[in-house]
What we know:
Strand content: under 5%
Distance between the termini: 26 Å
Number of helices: 8
Helix content: 55-70%
Order of helices and strands: HHHHHHHH
Radius of gyration: 22 Å
Structural class: mainly alpha
Amino acid sequence: xxxxxxxxxxxxxxxxxxxxxxxxxxxxxxxxxxxxxxxxxxxxxxxxxxxxxxxxxxxxxxxxxxxxxxxxxxxxxxxxxxxxxxxxxxxxxxxxxxxxxxxxxxxxxxxxxxxxxxxxxxxxxxxxxxxxxxxxxxxxxxxxxxxxxxxxxxxxxxxxx
Length: 161
């Protein structure tokens, strides 16, 4: 994969592509509604999903922030905040699941963007340094006649200078 693409997409994805956190927040809210026997219509569940999607954007890199966001949004849907106590027991394990889902989502977003931009380098079975990846990308672009003037390979020697 092109370092140019991964250096752009991964930080952006870790700020905005938090699928695992959003899904946990929505499922946890529905779980609390079920525990307290509060019926939710499809419209309420869908709006809850949209609200959780928006509120999950500000929790990147903050441990247990999903719990705070859930506690803040439960009253919006008429759900008791006391249900959070049930989630605290499993949050350590759920946090691991949220993290894995977020990482996989970010990796997929990076791979899709690289493929879309034509910067997905072929797998050779060997590890490459950044310099080797940039050189391979330049060679691939030169062979296909798609030289991108914005990509200027920088060697370790030039970086040290």
